[in-house]
Amino acid sequence: MSTLQQITPWQRVTEELTAIVGKGSVITDVAEALVYECDGLSMYRQRPKLVVLPQTTAQVSAILKVCDRYRIPFVARGSGTGLSGGALPHTEGILIVTSRMHQILDIDLANQQVVVQPGVINAWVTQAVADEGFYYAPDPSSQIICSIGGNVAENSGGVHCLKYGVTTNHVLGLTVVLPNGEIVELGGAAPEMPGYDLMGVFVGSEGTLGIATEIRLRILKQAEAIAVLLADFTTIEAAGETVSAIIRAGIIPAGMEIMDNLSINAVEDVVATNCYPRDAGAVLLVEVDGLDAEVPILQERVTRICYEQGARHVTVATEAEDRLRLWKGRKAAFAAAGRLSPNYFVQDGVIPRSQLATVLKEIAQLSQRSGYRIANVFHAGDGNLHPLILYDQAVPGALAEVEALGGEILKLCVRLGGSISGEHGIGSDKACFMSEMFSPADLETMQQVRSAFDPKRLANPEKVFPTPRTCGEAAHQLKDFPNIEAF
Amino acid sequence: MSTLQQITPWQRVTEELTAIVGKGSVITDVAEALVYECDGLSMYRQRPKLVVLPQTTAQVSAILKVCDRYRIPFVARGSGTGLSGGALPHTEGILIVTSRMHQILDIDLANQQVVVQPGVINAWVTQAVADEGFYYAPDPSSQIICSIGGNVAENSGGVHCLKYGVTTNHVLGLTVVLPNGEIVELGGAAPEMPGYDLMGVFVGSEGTLGIATEIRLRILKQAEAIAVLLADFTTIEAAGETVSAIIRAGIIPAGMEIMDNLSINAVEDVVATNCYPRDAGAVLLVEVDGLDAEVPILQERVTRICYEQGARHVTVATEAEDRLRLWKGRKAAFAAAGRLSPNYFVQDGVIPRSQLATVLKEIAQLSQRSGYRIANVFHAGDGNLHPLILYDQAVPGALAEVEALGGEILKLCVRLGGSISGEHGIGSDKACFMSEMFSPADLETMQQVRSAFDPKRLANPEKVFPTPRTCGEAAHQLKDFPNIEAF
């Protein structure tokens, strides 16, 4: 017997991948791989067979050809800041980490476009063009750490997506490696492309259709002037009604955020902004931007509407430093929630703006019935809720109860004509709620499209779509992948 | 032999369709069907086997189930104003006309949404909400006659899409009948929907994925103020450079249109606006909108930029009547071109804004070499060209030469980093140019997605994608459909 036959199949795969990316870019060591076992939804962890860190489109293509040949599932991971478990590794698969694909490949100011690799951090894009007066609009809270590739996978939003849209509105073209290793171009530099808008399908597909290796982004000119308004209300319903009144008046602020009393007190405990009144039922933050001549008019109109809707006080900040001070509490809201209780669970749902008051009342009732406190922080302008359920993971059964409570909130959103995810994606966390929103025919159509890209179901399997496993039943999905040890 | 067996298969299909939609809604008479033999690209005509005019989603579903059972190709048609032959009937198929699906089903002002049937005319949407201060943004030139269903199929633009985007940016949800008759919901009322953005794929798919029977549109608040500026330049290059300079200054006008000297003289001959100087190399129309306080500043800045770029004169109109007078010539441009020569062919291509001067120079050279005059009218802000090639169809060989010239212009657009279609679609006219833009792998991915919706290839076959037939070779594609007479 030759020694060759003693090499296990995974050793062979490791050798092939090492030949593609080099020795330092394949991680098989358990300790080294530990950091990749979860994403931002840290209560779930899974260990991949190995981790590979490519640097180029050609390397990603070669890696996926290996996966295709051996039928190995793969999961792509950017910075791992996702909140729905979309980058949770597959225990029988490869984790492809894009953090070494961090080049800004092209900056075309004349056509307001930037081309980046997927591992480029969101905030770097703005940094690269800020001196010339441009910026990249989508700004998830994690923007100083999250990757553009991850933003594309999740179709990330941010506090300014009310006026400026989400990631899909700012991606012009993608170089994509399909699960079989083939390289395709979706979209492109031209403002409108013929054929099917497959770029639009890819953005938000949560890694289930392939890996984007070059991303062409639209950049915008910075606004001349910005004003931030902070209005405090005795009830959260009044704050919600003010949001509708502002939109009804034909004003589209850059962002509108609401925080409830529990969140206000949490942030004041932690960062002491001294701007958010502790006895307020809710505060509403409104950012308006535009021309120097336009912003004062907008801020005056918004102020008037806030008072008409019962605001006790409205603070206006126009200088950068003052604006940051007003935003500070909102930016610290999630971190501050961590001080309120040992653990918290961020839910992400959407409702039509007109249902804001109704949904808040029902969430309050759910909180009371379940005995779990819920802090509400949300992108009010587009009806994107982020209820934070406070709990203690050390209490037996608490996690299961909190998950059930989170599920109730999602079903409530759907019942009111909304959606089970605003910007955090479905991932592994919400796959079992997809059937709340979509009919079997709707889901089947999506699966057909998925098969068009990935007939072998190797790209981020068991995510997004409901399977017995994700709905809490037996984990028999794994048998769909021939165990590579059998090769 | 019973008389039953003497019924031909098409008679049987006619009976089945009549049972679905009623007697007056199935047209088999050649004279009556004549009007449906072509769309706005009138040089190509084909007669369908029969025409059916449904009124409801259920009827469309039942019709497509008949098509699926007998494997009959079908083409959907709105108002037939398309310019790329997308609604050209199939000689062995059924034409499904949506003109009787003309109900506005819901108006939800609070959430700024309107739900319509596909046969609703574009301009009706704005008419229905104008009194409340809202409007529907996409405004193709044909807006008083074209249907929303057709707009969805073609992802139509208009003169205001620079600032407000094209149809896909204003569609929120679709009820779609798949080619097998199944009814699915794509997108919906919520601002963001999880799962794949199949609504985005459907918009612009030119009738190849199914038929949209209910369309949920976003409506916008009317701007407080609007100003239109008309600047005249001695050269078209200067007008093009001004467009870039305006964008570079961070201004996004609602629309920017350029007309060249030939177009100017054509419209002055026909509508005598007396605003467009006959000796100008080009005129640039710029529309700015916004707050009452914002628009005067924008118009002042645009005026200054125009003069800096060498404008001879800038006229500004703020009152509705004066604005219409400035727009009048642009709106009449296509009609006026009909006075310049017996026939004209409108091309539709896109280039990056920065290549405007280059492409205009090369189009002038193509015109000179070919001997055909070309009038240039275009949405300059987004680089969407509409060269009008003037010719006389009565001259033998002229049409073929003009088509070849149109093709050269498209290849030029692609060479400069642009696209073969801005807003008129691919249809039957441009399918053979798709391979200029897309690699075989790109096109194969689109075909796979098409198969996910339409595995039997019954929905508007022979359109969009290159086939031997559309590239001028033998018309052997038809044999893919078993002749129904064989049933």
From TrEMBL, chains A, B:
It comes from the Bacteria. InterPro entries: FAD-bd_oxidored_4_C, FAD-bd_PCMH, FAD-bd_PCMH-like_sf, FAD-bd_PCMH_sub2, FAD-linked_Oxase-like_C, FAD-linked_OxidoTrans_Type4, Oxid_FAD_bind_N, Vanillyl_alc_oxidase_C-sub2. SUPFAM superfamilies: FAD-binding/transporter-associated domain-like, FAD-linked oxidases, C-terminal domain. PROSITE patterns: FAD_PCMH. GO terms for molecular function: FAD binding; oxidoreductase activity. Its cofactor is FAD. Pfam families: FAD-oxidase_C, FAD_binding_4. Residues 44-222 form the FAD-binding PCMH-type domain. Keywords: FAD, Flavoprotein, Oxidoreductase. This is FAD-binding protein. It comes from Thermosynechococcus sichuanensis E542.
